[in-house]
């Protein structure tokens, strides 16, 4: 889950003037947070539509 | 080494992670050698019952020597070896779960422990066996019996594993010296320079021609004569092995050591196979090269090679050729220390799908100055390891000297971005630790980066900012909350509506939300009968039969039903998400980017034993949904049936005259194609964007009737196909009718084939006064007449 200040070239590519604009970003993987919180070991379970998995979360 | 050992490795890992690169793990090599000790063999006797076994007495540091039975072929009294004592927990072959060593009888003789071969304890790369059943002979070490093996061999070392990705823009960190440089900067200590060496001024008989200087900015070659292909001394082998490379032979190990220490790859050629000058050039069409690993490459004109007068001898910067590799009889080598263009190396490496230690370093853009360090180190090491060797030739072609990066950095820029009041002097001092030269010119800093940071890594004031910030230490900046102006948020109505629909289905209707992938299985597309021509196709699908993006959620839902029928008989699922159509391309943000039609659909499945019950349940969901989701009410009618629905049991969900969705029983054919072998599934699918949120709460008050209402029941016989909705409509339009309600229906012998009797209750009333019985009868007859005329119903009984 990286984060930081975008490179000026990235801002330029987005149409912003880096001498005026700067900023920061955080990338938080929601799937991963849930996996860490509940000890889920396979990220594919979230898209599996498997009731044995889904019904564990009340 | 002592300095690092006294410093806690945790602190080291933390500081490196905070200032420079992420330390992923710290591994103590001694862990793999737990339970193993040094043993001195005292006596070796033959085993009475086994030719290949010997009975040894071994001093393992205990009061009395141990008796160990062993099948080793090289056992001799006085030898020092590796012993696993009873009770020790040993990891066989250096991996897996530890196993307890127990005393055991081998062919009738008790053995208390094990004498180990290098392979049994995971050290075969460090102590390559030279014959069968060889026990590890460490007699040359200055070790005492009973001493822990790891300590005796100097293998109680902590290896820090650096995350490769965080080094992507730091080519200078490849190599221990680069790391040492960082640590010196972090802790403010002096960095020891790499020793220089004297090299002959003449080129001897070596000639190097760089034909493509844009791909090779520097090529140094040193010819070493009188070297031998022997095993490296233990110290050198151990260092290489500890960082995960395999020791091979002394000349090759020296080249690898230089690469590991300085980050500069080097390569050794056997001199006798090189004919004439060395050419650094692109390959010519039709040329081939047999690599060290046996692969035969068909070279293209895009690949850079090292060639002699005749043909290519190596794939430059990636791998050497087999013909010129260092073999047993090699006595003269050319050591190549060169710099190659990162992009050229990467393209060639990708083309042939080869990744080597050398190529992965070159791909990161190394600085040509490093060649000096590597050349000096090579000269010293070869002279030390091969005292009889001489340097019979030395060439250093440096056609494209690297210019250090020079950047103008305003102090105001640094102060503003860091939020710290720094002085030019302080910044200059900090940057000097990293090898930067700074000229202070009023409020401007002219920063010159060192060569090892000038290959693209440092190019903007922002890069200099990062250098200053990370050495100050990110924890040393005060936290200040930013001030922002808040505007009134835009209410996104559809978000609320979708949320309330999902909560309604999940909390009140007992359904489970699912998420499926946007691409769907061909098998389920077929089962659902969906129209493939409307779907977008992925150019790089996850699997060949999963290449279509969904234009309907039904295929994914059928698959989910199939999956869960394995474990459940009765369940409810729903999904609300995007679907995609290959049409109506329009632009949202920029005119260059066109997006296709992507509405949001809601799909659900109800699975159980009784189809009718499930159908009614699904219908009930949509009869009530408008109350919870606060949308315009929905009605039902039969207009268009989807291919997956059963002939009779289906209905469209309507918003006034527009079809917004459908509920239906999955047809036997679709069910079969979807692998649904038992129970029934009722599906619904709705276009969520066609559900209209209520504009506002607009109940208008209806005055309560002043005069009492009168109610009566009518039972009317209709044809089977007559719909209640039509009956209700016809009856409601009669004058004075306030409400019509369905009471019952009957089919049977009394009514006749193909007919049904429907009982309705009507409430009538007037605002003018109480109704007379005449008036009531009149309304009844009017209703019967109207219904009879429109729908052909006959009264059954009044």
What does this protein look like?
The complex is a heterodimer of chains A (58) and B (798). Chain A has helices spanning 8-13, 30-38, 51-54, and strands spanning 3-4, 25-26. Chain A has 58 residues and is mainly alpha-helical. Chain A has a two-stranded antiparallel ribbon. The radius of gyration of chain A is 18 Å and the shape is elongated. Chain B has six domains: 2-22 and 163-187, no CATH class; 29-152, Nucleic acid-binding proteins (OB fold (Dihydrolipoamide Acetyltransferase, E2P), Beta Barrel), CATH 2.40.50.140; 208-397, Phenylalanyl-trna Synthetase, Chain B, domain 3 (Phenylalanyl-tRNA Synthetase, Chain B, domain 3), CATH 3.50.40; 408-449 and 459-476, Phenylalanyl-tRNA Synthetase, Chain B, domain 1, CATH 3.30.56.10; 493-690, BirA Bifunctional Protein, domain 2; 710-797, Alpha-Beta Plaits. Chain B is built from 19 helices and 40 strands. Chain B has a seven-stranded mixed sheet with strand order 26-29-32-36-35-34-33, sandwiched between helices. Chain B has a five-stranded antiparallel sheet with strand order 4-3-2-5-10. The A-B interface holds A 5, 7-8, 22, 46-52, 54-55 and B 417, 460, 462, 512-517, 556, 559-560, 563-564, 567-568, 571, 573.
List keywords for this structure.
heterodimer; A: 58 residues; B: 798 residues; alpha+beta; Phenylalanyl-tRNA Synthetase, Chain B, domain 3; 6 domains; 7-stranded mixed sheet; 5-stranded antiparallel sheet; 40 strands; 26% helix; 28% strand
Short description:
The complex is a heterodimer of chains A (58) and B (798). Chain A is built from three helices and two strands. By secondary structure, chain A is mostly helical.
Helix amount of chain B, in percent? 25-40%
- Briefly, what CATH class of the largest domain in chain B? Alpha Beta
Q: Main beta sheet of chain B, described?
A: 7 strands, mixed
| Strands ordered across the widest β-sheet of chain A | 1-2
Instruction: Please report the total strand number of chain B as a whole number.
Output: 40
Q: Strand pairing plus helix content of chain A: what structural class?
A: mainly alpha
> What's the story with the biggest beta sheet of chain A?
2 strands, antiparallel
The pLDDT mean of chain B sits at: 90
Percent range for helical residues of chain A? 25-40%
What oligomeric arrangement do these chains adopt? heterodimer
Shape of chain B: elongated
Uncertain spans of chain B: none
Order of helices and strands of chain A: EHEHH
Number of structurally distinct domains of chain B: 6
């Amino acid at each position: 889950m990286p984060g930081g200040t975008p490179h000026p070239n990235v801002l330029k590519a987005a149409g912003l003037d880096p001498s005026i604009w700067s900023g920061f970003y955080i990338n938080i993987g929601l799937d991963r947070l849930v996996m860490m919180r509940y000890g889920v070991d396979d990220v594919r379970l979230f898209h599996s539509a498997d009731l044995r998995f889904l019904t564990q979360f009340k | 080494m002592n300095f690092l050992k006294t410093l806690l490795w945790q602190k080291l890992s933390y500081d490196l992670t905070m200032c420079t690169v992420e330390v992923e793990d710290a591994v103590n090599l001694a862990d793999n050698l737990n339970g193993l000790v040094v043993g001195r063999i005292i006596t070796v006797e033959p085993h009475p019952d086994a030719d290949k076994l010997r009975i040894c007495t071994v001093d393992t540091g205990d009061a009395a020597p141990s008796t160990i039975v062993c099948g080793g072929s090289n056992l001799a009294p006085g030898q020092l070896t590796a012993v696993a004592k009873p009770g020790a927990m040993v990891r066989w072959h250096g991996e897996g779960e530890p196993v307890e060593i127990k005393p055991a009888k081998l062919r009738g003789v008790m053995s208390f422990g094990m004498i180990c071969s290098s392979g049994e304890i995971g050290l075969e790369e460090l102590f390559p066996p030279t014959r069968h059943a060889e026990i590890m002979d460490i007699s040359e070490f200055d070790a005492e019996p009973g001493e822990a093996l790891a300590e005796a061999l100097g293998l109680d070392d902590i290896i820090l594993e650096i995350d490769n990705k965080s080094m992507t823009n730091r080519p200078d960190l490849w190599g221990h010296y680069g790391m040492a440089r960082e640590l010196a900067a972090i802790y403010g200590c002096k960095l020891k320079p790499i020793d220089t060496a004297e090299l002959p001024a003449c080129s001897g008989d070596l000639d190097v021609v760089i034909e493509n200087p844009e791909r090779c900015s520097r090529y140094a070659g040193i010819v070493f004569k009188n070297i031998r292909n022997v095993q490296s001394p233990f110290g050198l082998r151990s260092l290489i092995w500890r960082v995960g490379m395999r020791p091979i032979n002394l000349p090759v190990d020296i080249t690898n050591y230089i690469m590991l220490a300085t980050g500069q790859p080097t390569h050794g050629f056997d001199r006798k196979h090189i004919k004439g000058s060395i050419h650094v050039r692109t390959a010519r069409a039709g040329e081939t090269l047999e690599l060290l690993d046996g692969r035969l490459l068909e070279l293209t004109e895009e690949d850079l090679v090292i060639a002699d007068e005749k043909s290519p001898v190596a794939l430059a910067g990636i791998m050497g050729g087999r013909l010129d590799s260092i073999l047993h009889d090699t006595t003269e080598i050319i050591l190549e220390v060169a710099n190659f263009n990162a992009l050229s190396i990467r393209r060639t490496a990708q083309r042939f799908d080869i990744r080597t230690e050398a190529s992965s370093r070159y791909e990161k853009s190394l600085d040509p100055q490093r060649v000096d360090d590597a050349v000096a180190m090579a000269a010293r090491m070869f002279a030390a390891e091969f005292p009889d060797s001489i340097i019979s030739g030395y060439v250093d072609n440096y056609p494209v000297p690297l210019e250090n990066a020079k950047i103008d950095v305003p102090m105001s820029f640094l102060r503003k971005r860091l939020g710290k009041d720094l002085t030019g002097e302080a910044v200059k001092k900090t940057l000097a630790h990293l090898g930067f030269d700074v000229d202070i010119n009023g409020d401007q800093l002219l920063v010159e980066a060192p060569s090892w940071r000038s290959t693209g890594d440092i190019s903007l004031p922002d890069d200099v900012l990062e250098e200053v910030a990370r050495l100050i230490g990110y924890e040393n900046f005060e936290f200040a909350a930013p001030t922002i102006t808040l505007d009134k948020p835009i209410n996104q109505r559809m978000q609320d509506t979708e949320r309330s629909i999902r909560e309604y289905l999940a909390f009140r209707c007992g359904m489970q939300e699912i998420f499926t992938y946007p691409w769907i299985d061909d098998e389920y597309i077929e089962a659902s009968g969906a129209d493939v021509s409307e779907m977008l196709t992925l150019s790089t699908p996850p699997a060949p039969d999963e290449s279509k993006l969904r234009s309907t959620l039904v295929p994914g839902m059928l698959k989910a039903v199939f999956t869960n029928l394995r474990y459940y008989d009765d369940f409810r699922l729903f999904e609300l998400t995007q679907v995609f159509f290959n049409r109506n391309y329009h632009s949202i943000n920029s005119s260059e980017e066109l997006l296709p039609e992507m509405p949001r659909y809601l799909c659900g499945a109800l699975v159980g034993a009784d189809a009718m019950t499930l159908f009614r349940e699904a219908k009930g969901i949509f009869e009530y949904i408008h109350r919870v989701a606060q949308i315009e009410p929905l009605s039902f009618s039969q207009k268009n049936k989807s291919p997956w629905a059963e002939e009779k049991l289906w209905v469209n969900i309507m918003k006034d005259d527009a079809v917004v969705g459908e509920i239906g029983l999955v047809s036997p054919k679709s069910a079969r194609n979807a692998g649904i072998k038992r129970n029934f599934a009722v599906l619904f699918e709705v276009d969520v964007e066609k559900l209209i949120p209520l504009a506002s709460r607009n109940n208008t008050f209806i005055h309560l009737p002043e005069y009492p209402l009168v109610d009566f029941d009518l039972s009317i016989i209709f044809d089977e196909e007559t719909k209640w909705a039509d009956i209700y409509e016809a009856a409601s339009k009669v004058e004075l009718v306030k409400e019509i309600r369905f009471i019952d229906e009957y089919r049977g012998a009394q009514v006749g084939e193909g007919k049904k009797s429907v009982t309705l209750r009507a409430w009538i009333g007037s605002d003018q006064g109480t109704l007379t019985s005449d008036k009531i009868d009149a309304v009844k007859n009017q209703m019967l007449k109207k219904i009879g005329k429109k729908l052909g119903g006959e009264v059954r009984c009044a």
